[in-house]
Automatic annotation (TrEMBL):
Organism: Halosolutus amylolyticus
Entry similarity comment: Belongs to the enoyl-CoA hydratase/isomerase family.
Biological classification of the source: Archaea, Methanobacteriati, Methanobacteriota, Stenosarchaea group, Halobacteria
Pfam family, one: ECH_1
Protein's recorded name: Enoyl-CoA hydratase-related protein
Stretch forming the signal peptide: none
Length: 266
Protein backbone atom coordinates (compact mmCIF):
# COMPACT_ATOMS: atom_id res chain seq x y z
CA UNK A 1 0.00 0.00 0.00
CA UNK A 2 1.33 3.45 -0.94
CA UNK A 3 0.45 6.35 1.36
CA UNK A 4 1.01 9.31 -0.91
CA UNK A 5 4.30 9.30 -2.80
CA UNK A 6 6.61 9.25 0.23
CA UNK A 7 5.70 6.23 2.36
CA UNK A 8 4.81 2.64 1.57
CA UNK A 9 3.08 0.18 3.88
CA UNK A 10 2.99 -3.60 3.69
CA UNK A 11 1.08 -5.70 6.22
CA UNK A 12 1.95 -9.36 5.87
CA UNK A 13 -0.08 -12.38 6.90
CA UNK A 14 2.55 -13.31 9.50
CA UNK A 15 1.69 -10.21 11.54
CA UNK A 16 4.58 -7.99 10.43
CA UNK A 17 3.80 -4.49 9.17
CA UNK A 18 6.60 -2.70 7.31
CA UNK A 19 6.69 1.07 6.87
CA UNK A 20 9.15 2.16 4.17
CA UNK A 21 10.24 5.77 3.85
CA UNK A 22 10.45 6.18 0.09
CA UNK A 23 11.99 9.48 -0.94
CA UNK A 24 15.51 8.21 -1.71
CA UNK A 25 16.37 11.23 -3.83
CA UNK A 26 16.03 13.31 -0.63
CA UNK A 27 17.58 10.57 1.51
CA UNK A 28 14.21 10.12 3.18
CA UNK A 29 14.44 13.40 5.07
CA UNK A 30 11.52 13.91 7.44
CA UNK A 31 9.43 16.01 5.08
CA UNK A 32 5.81 16.91 5.66
CA UNK A 33 4.85 14.13 3.22
CA UNK A 34 6.87 11.49 5.04
CA UNK A 35 5.64 12.63 8.45
CA UNK A 36 2.00 12.47 7.33
CA UNK A 37 2.62 9.14 5.64
CA UNK A 38 4.03 7.59 8.82
CA UNK A 39 1.03 8.73 10.85
CA UNK A 40 -1.37 7.41 8.21
CA UNK A 41 0.49 4.09 8.11
CA UNK A 42 0.32 3.70 11.88
CA UNK A 43 -3.41 4.42 11.76
CA UNK A 44 -3.83 1.66 9.17
CA UNK A 45 -1.71 -0.76 11.18
CA UNK A 46 -3.66 -0.19 14.38
CA UNK A 47 -6.81 -1.33 12.58
CA UNK A 48 -5.08 -4.46 11.20
CA UNK A 49 -4.03 -7.80 12.70
CA UNK A 50 -0.36 -6.79 12.79
CA UNK A 51 1.68 -7.67 15.86
CA UNK A 52 4.91 -5.82 15.10
CA UNK A 53 5.97 -2.77 13.07
CA UNK A 54 9.23 -2.45 11.13
CA UNK A 55 10.36 1.02 9.99
CA UNK A 56 12.99 1.29 7.26
CA UNK A 57 14.27 3.67 4.61
CA UNK A 58 14.79 3.05 0.90
CA UNK A 59 17.83 3.75 -1.23
CA UNK A 60 20.58 3.21 1.35
CA UNK A 61 19.44 5.89 3.81
CA UNK A 62 17.24 5.57 6.88
CA UNK A 63 16.44 9.27 7.19
CA UNK A 64 18.82 12.15 6.68
CA UNK A 65 17.25 14.57 9.11
CA UNK A 66 14.90 17.49 8.61
CA UNK A 67 13.63 18.83 5.35
CA UNK A 68 16.43 21.18 4.22
CA UNK A 69 14.42 22.41 1.23
CA UNK A 70 11.69 23.55 3.61
CA UNK A 71 14.33 25.28 5.75
CA UNK A 72 15.57 27.21 2.71
CA UNK A 73 12.01 28.22 1.84
CA UNK A 74 11.50 29.39 5.40
CA UNK A 75 14.66 31.52 5.31
CA UNK A 76 13.93 33.05 1.93
CA UNK A 77 10.30 33.65 2.79
CA UNK A 78 11.06 35.18 6.19
CA UNK A 79 8.58 32.82 7.86
CA UNK A 80 7.23 34.26 11.17
CA UNK A 81 8.22 32.40 14.35
CA UNK A 82 4.69 31.27 15.17
CA UNK A 83 4.33 29.83 11.67
CA UNK A 84 7.63 27.96 12.01
CA UNK A 85 6.41 26.45 15.26
CA UNK A 86 3.19 25.31 13.60
CA UNK A 87 5.24 23.84 10.73
CA UNK A 88 7.25 21.70 13.18
CA UNK A 89 4.07 20.63 14.91
CA UNK A 90 2.65 19.47 11.58
CA UNK A 91 5.76 17.75 10.22
CA UNK A 92 7.51 16.18 13.21
CA UNK A 93 5.75 16.55 16.54
CA UNK A 94 2.68 14.49 15.69
CA UNK A 95 4.80 11.88 13.93
CA UNK A 96 7.20 11.41 16.84
CA UNK A 97 4.49 11.35 19.49
CA UNK A 98 2.47 8.81 17.52
CA UNK A 99 5.45 6.53 17.03
CA UNK A 100 6.75 6.76 20.61
CA UNK A 101 3.33 5.92 22.07
CA UNK A 102 2.31 3.33 19.46
CA UNK A 103 0.99 0.24 21.27
CA UNK A 104 2.65 -2.42 19.08
CA UNK A 105 6.38 -3.20 19.28
CA UNK A 106 8.30 -1.11 16.73
CA UNK A 107 11.69 -1.90 15.21
CA UNK A 108 13.88 0.53 13.25
CA UNK A 109 16.10 -1.01 10.57
CA UNK A 110 18.87 1.56 10.11
CA UNK A 111 20.93 1.33 6.94
CA UNK A 112 23.00 4.37 6.05
CA UNK A 113 22.54 7.79 7.69
CA UNK A 114 20.06 8.46 10.46
CA UNK A 115 20.76 12.06 11.41
CA UNK A 116 18.91 14.90 13.10
CA UNK A 117 15.21 14.21 13.05
CA UNK A 118 16.01 10.94 11.27
CA UNK A 119 18.07 9.76 14.24
CA UNK A 120 15.15 10.56 16.51
CA UNK A 121 12.82 8.65 14.21
CA UNK A 122 14.95 5.57 14.86
CA UNK A 123 15.08 6.21 18.62
CA UNK A 124 11.30 6.64 18.70
CA UNK A 125 11.04 2.94 17.90
CA UNK A 126 11.36 0.34 20.65
CA UNK A 127 14.31 -1.52 19.12
CA UNK A 128 17.03 -0.37 16.71
CA UNK A 129 18.88 -2.78 14.40
CA UNK A 130 21.68 -1.45 12.20
CA UNK A 131 23.82 -2.45 9.26
CA UNK A 132 27.55 -1.79 9.33
CA UNK A 133 26.90 1.22 7.07
CA UNK A 134 24.61 2.93 9.59
CA UNK A 135 25.59 6.31 11.00
CA UNK A 136 23.93 8.49 13.63
CA UNK A 137 24.25 12.19 14.28
CA UNK A 138 22.33 14.89 16.09
CA UNK A 139 23.57 17.61 13.77
CA UNK A 140 21.19 20.46 14.48
CA UNK A 141 24.07 22.82 15.36
CA UNK A 142 25.52 22.40 11.87
CA UNK A 143 22.55 24.29 10.42
CA UNK A 144 22.39 26.79 13.28
CA UNK A 145 19.42 25.19 15.02
CA UNK A 146 18.56 23.92 18.48
CA UNK A 147 17.37 20.35 18.92
CA UNK A 148 13.86 19.28 17.96
CA UNK A 149 11.92 16.16 16.92
CA UNK A 150 12.05 14.80 20.46
CA UNK A 151 15.83 14.87 20.97
CA UNK A 152 15.66 16.23 24.53
CA UNK A 153 13.18 13.49 25.48
CA UNK A 154 14.53 10.49 23.58
CA UNK A 155 18.31 10.83 23.58
CA UNK A 156 19.00 11.18 27.36
CA UNK A 157 16.76 8.18 28.02
CA UNK A 158 18.83 6.05 25.66
CA UNK A 159 22.42 7.16 26.30
CA UNK A 160 22.28 9.20 29.53
CA UNK A 161 22.35 12.95 29.99
CA UNK A 162 26.10 13.55 29.71
CA UNK A 163 26.52 11.53 26.50
CA UNK A 164 23.41 13.19 25.07
CA UNK A 165 24.93 16.60 25.80
CA UNK A 166 28.14 15.66 24.00
CA UNK A 167 26.29 14.34 20.96
CA UNK A 168 24.14 17.45 20.53
CA UNK A 169 26.79 20.03 21.43
CA UNK A 170 29.42 18.58 19.07
CA UNK A 171 27.09 17.31 16.36
CA UNK A 172 29.49 14.40 15.85
CA UNK A 173 28.53 11.60 13.47
CA UNK A 174 29.03 8.16 15.03
CA UNK A 175 29.36 4.95 13.03
CA UNK A 176 27.47 1.74 13.66
CA UNK A 177 29.91 0.15 16.10
CA UNK A 178 30.23 3.27 18.25
CA UNK A 179 26.45 3.70 18.13
CA UNK A 180 26.10 0.18 19.52
CA UNK A 181 28.61 0.96 22.28
CA UNK A 182 26.62 4.07 23.24
CA UNK A 183 23.31 2.19 23.20
CA UNK A 184 21.88 4.02 20.20
CA UNK A 185 21.26 0.63 18.59
CA UNK A 186 20.57 -2.80 20.05
CA UNK A 187 22.54 -4.75 17.47
CA UNK A 188 24.75 -4.20 14.44
CA UNK A 189 24.63 -6.99 11.86
CA UNK A 190 26.89 -7.50 8.86
CA UNK A 191 25.33 -7.25 5.41
CA UNK A 192 25.52 -10.98 4.77
CA UNK A 193 23.54 -11.85 7.89
CA UNK A 194 21.39 -8.75 8.35
CA UNK A 195 18.16 -10.03 6.80
CA UNK A 196 18.36 -13.38 8.59
CA UNK A 197 19.12 -11.91 12.00
CA UNK A 198 16.36 -9.30 11.63
CA UNK A 199 13.88 -11.99 10.58
CA UNK A 200 14.78 -14.10 13.63
CA UNK A 201 14.23 -11.24 16.07
CA UNK A 202 11.01 -10.11 14.40
CA UNK A 203 9.69 -13.68 14.44
CA UNK A 204 10.43 -13.93 18.17
CA UNK A 205 8.47 -10.74 18.86
CA UNK A 206 5.56 -11.64 16.58
CA UNK A 207 5.19 -15.04 18.24
CA UNK A 208 4.63 -13.47 21.65
CA UNK A 209 1.26 -12.95 23.38
CA UNK A 210 -0.13 -9.75 21.80
CA UNK A 211 -2.16 -8.47 24.77
CA UNK A 212 0.72 -8.99 27.19
CA UNK A 213 3.22 -7.55 24.71
CA UNK A 214 1.21 -4.35 24.41
CA UNK A 215 1.09 -3.99 28.18
CA UNK A 216 4.80 -4.62 28.72
CA UNK A 217 5.70 -2.30 25.85
CA UNK A 218 3.67 0.51 27.43
CA UNK A 219 4.92 -0.14 30.97
CA UNK A 220 8.60 -0.10 30.04
CA UNK A 221 8.13 3.03 27.91
CA UNK A 222 6.42 4.86 30.77
CA UNK A 223 8.61 3.54 33.57
CA UNK A 224 11.17 6.35 33.72
CA UNK A 225 8.43 8.89 34.38
CA UNK A 226 7.00 7.08 37.42
CA UNK A 227 7.81 6.46 41.06
CA UNK A 228 8.45 2.86 42.07
CA UNK A 229 5.11 2.84 43.87
CA UNK A 230 3.21 3.95 40.78
CA UNK A 231 5.12 1.49 38.59
CA UNK A 232 4.19 -1.40 40.87
CA UNK A 233 0.53 -0.41 40.90
CA UNK A 234 0.42 -0.07 37.12
CA UNK A 235 2.17 -3.42 36.64
CA UNK A 236 -0.30 -5.13 38.95
CA UNK A 237 -3.21 -3.58 37.06
CA UNK A 238 -1.82 -4.70 33.72
CA UNK A 239 -1.15 -8.17 35.06
CA UNK A 240 -4.73 -8.37 36.25
CA UNK A 241 -5.88 -7.67 32.69
CA UNK A 242 -3.52 -10.23 31.18
CA UNK A 243 -4.42 -12.94 33.72
CA UNK A 244 -7.88 -13.08 32.16
CA UNK A 245 -6.72 -13.73 28.58
CA UNK A 246 -6.86 -16.97 26.63
CA UNK A 247 -3.19 -16.42 25.82
CA UNK A 248 -2.26 -16.69 29.50
CA UNK A 249 -4.13 -19.98 29.73
CA UNK A 250 -2.44 -21.18 26.54
CA UNK A 251 0.98 -20.18 27.88
CA UNK A 252 0.53 -22.08 31.14
CA UNK A 253 -0.92 -25.11 29.34
CA UNK A 254 1.94 -25.16 26.83
CA UNK A 255 4.46 -24.92 29.65
CA UNK A 256 3.10 -28.03 31.38
CA UNK A 257 2.78 -29.87 28.05
CA UNK A 258 6.39 -28.99 27.19
CA UNK A 259 5.56 -27.36 23.84
CA UNK A 260 5.72 -23.93 22.27
CA UNK A 261 2.62 -21.83 22.95
CA UNK A 262 0.45 -20.57 20.11
CA UNK A 263 -0.81 -17.14 21.09
CA UNK A 264 -3.82 -15.69 19.28
CA UNK A 265 -4.19 -12.29 20.94
CA UNK A 266 -7.25 -13.10 23.02
Amino acid sequence: MTLGDAVQLEVEDDGVATITLDQPDRRNALSAEIGAGIVAALDEIEESDARCVVVEGSGGSFSAGGDVEAMIEGIQGDMPIDERVRYLERTTNETMARLVTFPLPTIALVDGPAVGAGANLALACDIQLATEDAAFGFVFRQVGLSVDAGTSYLLPRVVGENVAQELVLTGDIVGADHAEELGLVNHVYSDDEFDERVADLVETIVSGPPVAMRQMNRLVREGLDKSIEQALVDEATAQGIVFGTDDHEEGVTAFFEDRDPEFEGR
